[in-house]
Amino acid sequence: MGTALLYDEEMTKYKLLWVDAACKIEVPERLIVSYEALVRSGLSDRCISIPAREASDSEILLVHSELYLEAVKKTPYMTLEDLKEFTLQFGDVYFHPNIYHCAKLASGSALQLVDSVMTGKVRNGIALVRPPGHHSMHSAANGFCVFNNVAIAARYAKQKYGVKRVLIVDWDIHHGQGVQYCFEDDPSVLYFSWHRYEHQNFWPNLRESDYDSVGKESGAGFNINVPWNNVGMENSDYLSVFCHVLLPVAYEFCPDLVLVCAGFDSAIGDPEGEMCATPDIFAHLTHLLMNLAGGKLCAVLEGGYNLTSLAQSVCQTVQTLLGDPLPQLANLRGPCKSAVESLQCARSAHRRYWSFLKHATDPPMTDISTKHIKSAMEEEEKTEMAEEERCTEGKVWPEPPERLCPPVCSASVLPDDVACPDGLKRLSSSKDLEPLLVSKLKNRFRTAAVDGDGVTTFSRLYTLIEKLVANEIRNGLVLVPDVAAVMMCVVQDLTSDLVKRVLVVCVGKEKELDYVTTDGKVLVVQISSEDSEEQRSKYYIPVCLKKGCSDTSGFIQAVLGLLLPLGYEYNPDLVLLVRMPGSGVVDSMWQQLIGLLQGFAKGHTLVLMQVNEKACMGSTASALLGHPAPPLQDLQTPFPEDGDALERLRERLQADWKMLQTTS
Ligand SMILES: NCCCNCCCCCS
Ligand SMILES: [Zn+2]
């Protein structure tokens, strides 16, 4: 299924008609440059174009009052003076004779997108709209917003499609207070927002935008605020919050639909956000949400005021929605001190509501009053930091790298008597291995692994790896008689020259991995049921689950809170996913894991499985081909020992792996 794109140039036909410093950045060009970038890059042709429509009165009244709607209805007939007068009652927003029409189109576009996704016409999609929506409230326009497009879409999805749980992710740099107010007592809508806050010194300067606004009454726990108390936040900060706050809760919530308040003023270069995250971060934020709700994701444009980073960020988002390989994120050096504090506060505030946050530790007690002093010291610390280290003025950043689709998506190396799963391309050609390598293989393993056809398997395996590294193939599946033996071989020989860094994810355990590099060419993360007395080097990380890999709650918690942050920091060129026989991993979890691992190494994942587990080749192939993984249904509370062990593991490793930091 495809990706919907909603855009209508009518929504460019309103603008600010008088002088107002607060509103001058909200210009029609925002939509024009975004759409033109999609056209120029060829991305718009790859999307399914869905027409915009006007939201009806009843749809708008799902969120707004009749009083407000009737008032806005009058604006098309107002004189310039009346419009100015009418505008005065609201904050940081302006009206125009055509803005009511455009606001109905913006909300209607969001509803068209929901229809397209919920009826299965498309898998996901994006609506390029203006005016934005997340600041508008029951009876008030605010922050360039007239109708709350995403809030209306959430209510509409529940009413028309019986959606039980909606996740709204607001990655715009402003707090969507309008969305928070709309759903704060509603446990069926989980609202997550990060936003520039600076201890309430940034617009809209609301006390209720802080991390301790967790929702009210039955909605307690279903409102998550992550305040940014400094500017200059980078990719590491955003990914840390996704891995350690949003994703654990999102998986536990298990939404039927994901709506994104896709504001791009959180990108570098934006005059509002003054952050330093690069446009390619949105490729990863989108990717990390795409395995939820069976892939049903609707992104609706909110803010974004730097026309260059806005256009690039929109393209990055759409390219991921289309399933293209992700760009590698370089030198993630972990969250800054202020970000760690914010994420620790958010985790702590929600510990009592979410079993996946149960082991969050409390932040050191500094009462609110001292915060502004602290932030002043932080400010000083930042200015002391070398000028070139901080984001330079004038905000220059590299164009996001091209994300080329390999000619072949998924290849397989199988014994001749095993049928190739649909969609995979069987690799039968293989270059002859150097005799030296063959003899090395032979004398290293006398087992069946490398008898006659074993060598053929190896030569095909090496050919496959070469093609992955050359980006001729995106990912692959290899079936072998003896997984452990082959893994050792691959790991030892792989790191020679083909790839710089290999992330080995070992699911289940058959025996000690007696081969661990210390030079960092291989990072092994092993998830299994047994604790390993193995000396732990920085590059061999055993995760022990009390009930083993069949415990999906413990497994996903380890993946989100440990494997993902590690993988982002390590930034491998190849991922080797090894399924040990008898691991017991549940199929949906296995598919989720394959989906999430696509975020690394441009999607170059090599899955190694034992021939006698060929029954799960079908689901493996489906995940490798990019089909959304099935949701992880009714996750139990993770075992306390596991949650505790994971927290201790992170604390012990965070000195070496900064992306594991969750405590300041
Ligand atoms: N320096 C201009 C102040 C603008 N304040 C309102 C911002 C609304 C953003 C909507 S995403
Ligand atoms: Zn914004």
Short recap of the structure:
Residues 26-320 form the Histone deacetylase domain. By secondary structure, the chain is of the alpha/beta class.
Characterise the protein shown here:
Residues 26-320 form the Histone deacetylase domain. This is Histone deacetylase domain-containing protein. InterPro entries: HDACs, His_deacetylse_dom, His_deacetylse_dom_sf, Ureohydrolase_dom_sf. It comes from Ataeniobius toweri. This protein has 664 residues and is α/β, with parallel strands linked by helices. It folds into two domains: 2-325 and 339-368, Histone deacetylase domain (Arginase, Chain A), CATH 3.40.800; 408-656, Histone deacetylase domain (Arginase, Chain A, 3-Layer(aba) Sandwich), CATH 3.40.800.20. It is 37% helix and 13% strand. The strands form two sheets. Strands 2-1-3-8-7-4-5-6 form an eight-stranded parallel beta sheet, with helices on both faces. Strands 10-9-11-16-15-12-13-14 form an eight-stranded parallel beta sheet, sandwiched between helices. α10 runs parallel beside α11 (307-321) and α17 (552-570) runs parallel beside α18 (587-597). It is globular and about 90 Å long. The structure holds 5-[(3-aminopropyl)amino]pentane-1-thiol and zinc ion. The site of zinc ion has 8 residues, from loops.
